[in-house]
Amino acid sequence: MPVGSATMSEVKAGFARDWVEFFDPNDEETIFKCDLTWLTSYWTCIYGDGCQGVFKNQPNSGCCTEGAMYTDEDDEARTVKAAAYLTPDMWQYYNEARPKKPGGPLRISEKDEDGERKTSM
Q: Considering the entire predicted model, what is its pTM?
């Protein structure tokens, strides 16, 4: 939650949400479950337009600087595989994610303060 702001949802608490589920066309064992209520809401990130940052000592860092938690090892592997297809035009951290050594792994994962795996960018 940004410093100095209250938790705010795109809809009131208890609002009935609509969900959609569909199979990944490239993997019949993967099902995506998406929150249509959020995806079709008017919510927008206010980073750079009123956001006071995530940490007091980092006022210019939005919540996206925290990364995303992986659900398990398979989720991390899928994310790394997908990131390998990104180009410099698609990803602002493309160069930072490149392997240190030719043929090495992408550098997109790290552990948080609790030792949980997450994206680093």
A: 0.53
For residue 33, report the phi and psi dihedrals to the nearest 5 degrees: -120, 115
Beta bridge partners of 20: 34
Contact 79, 108 (CB under 8 A): yes
Integer Cα distance of 5 and 109 in angstroms = 29
Contacts of 98 (CB under 8 A, 6+ apart): 106, 107
Residue pLDDT, tens place only, 9-66: 566 777 788 899 999 898 889 898 888 888 888 877 776 676 776 677 777 776 667 7
Nearest-5° Cα angle at 27, 35 to 37: 5
pLDDT digits (tens, 9 = 90+) for 59-75: 777 666 777 888 889 98
Domain residue ranges in the chain: 1-66, 67-121
Residue environment code for 3-21, b if the CB has 16+ CB neighbours within 10 A, otherwise e: eeeeeeeeeeeeeeeeeee
